[in-house]
């Protein structure tokens, strides 16, 4: 089925839910609790931590799938239409989802678009302080949908805030000697992280890791590496190391892995991946400490 037919079928499913109702949460904390639909792994992490066992979370991006350019299937759109709460990041990362939500507005929507204020970079979740703010918003929307459990949602959001504050403190302490260092990333996804911890990101492939860099961009990146004496080129494992390793071999630098937490496999978690990223940064950046 081509994209146009797929989206038409999806919207038809959403319209049917609007007329007849679809399976979802109760909206009052009874039964199976609230149905929450999310559109990426970091949003899933927040919704599950804040909602706890009072919610059932459906992530439209399957495990191991790429959240960039997600095209919702008819089944996914039925999940969106039947959800009590939708947690999404609009603004173009997933235009197919944006279109579905515009056609069939959800009962309760948490849109993180204003947390992603380094356009066109959507990866705000790589800054744990910003992700903690999303947790508070999710708690507020869950409370609107399920007032009887408002206190539980608020307490869960507060616990998540403490956990993410601890993660932020770990990053700040480990990267304090690295302030001003150049972070050379094959996938230019780490602008929020760099901004939070005083680093300077230089991207090789841009925001979409599937796009091959032009010779001119490779030359510019190589010049940046030489000028700043960066000692590591970081790449995303899911996108492959070819570009990073080619650049590193030409310049005599090392390579290492950073995870943008978009394509998450079974067993991988947001805190675990963030701490793996921190370990890679601490060993790979040119720091004073």
Automatic annotation (TrEMBL):
GO terms for biological process: metal ion transport. Residues 1-23 form the signal peptide. Keywords: Signal, Transport. One of its GO terms (molecular function) is metal ion binding. Pfam families: ZnuA. It comes from the Bacteria. PANTHER family: HIGH-AFFINITY ZINC UPTAKE SYSTEM PROTEIN ZNUA, HIGH-AFFINITY ZINC UPTAKE SYSTEM PROTEIN ZNUA-RELATED. Belongs to the bacterial solute-binding protein 9 family. This is Zinc transport system substrate-binding protein. The lineage of its organism: Bacteria, Bacillati, Actinomycetota, Actinomycetes, Geodermatophilales.
């Amino acid at each position: 089925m081509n994209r146009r037919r797929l989206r038409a079928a999806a919207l038809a499913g959403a319209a049917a839910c609007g007329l007849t109702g679809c399976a979802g949460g109760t909206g009052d904390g009874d039964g199976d609790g609230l149905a929450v639909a999310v559109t990426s792994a970091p949003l899933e992490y927040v919704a599950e931590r804040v909602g706890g066992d009072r919610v059932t979370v459906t992530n439209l991006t399957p495990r191991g799938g790429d959240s960039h350019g997600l095209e919702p299937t008819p089944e996914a759109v039925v999940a969106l239409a039947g959800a009590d709460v939708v947690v999404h990041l609009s603004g173009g990362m997933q235009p197919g989802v944006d279109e579905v939500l515009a056609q069939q507005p959800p009962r309760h929507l948490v849109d993180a678009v204003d947390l992603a204020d380094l356009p066109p970079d959507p990866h705000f979740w790589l800054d744990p302080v910003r992700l903690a703010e999303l947790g508070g918003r999710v708690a507020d929307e869950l409370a609107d949908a399920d007032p009887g459990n408002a206190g539980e949602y608020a307490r869960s959001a507060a616990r998540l805030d403490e956990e993410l504050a601890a993660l932020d403190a770990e990053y700040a302490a480990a990267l304090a000697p690295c302030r001003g260092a150049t972070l050379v990333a094959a996938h230019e996804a780490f602008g929020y992280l760099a901004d939070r911890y005083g680093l300077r990101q230089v991207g090789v492939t841009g925001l979409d890791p599937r796009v091959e860099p032009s010779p001119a961009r490779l030359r510019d990146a190589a010049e940046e590496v030489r000028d700043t004496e960066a000692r590591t080129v970081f790449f995303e494992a899911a996108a492959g190391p070819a570009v990073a390793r080619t650049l590193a071999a030409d310049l005599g630098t090392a390579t290492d892995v950073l995870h943008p937490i978009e394509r998450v496999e079974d067993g991988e978690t947001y805190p675990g991946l963030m701490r793996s990223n921190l370990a890679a940064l601490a060993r790979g950046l040119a720091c004073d400490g």
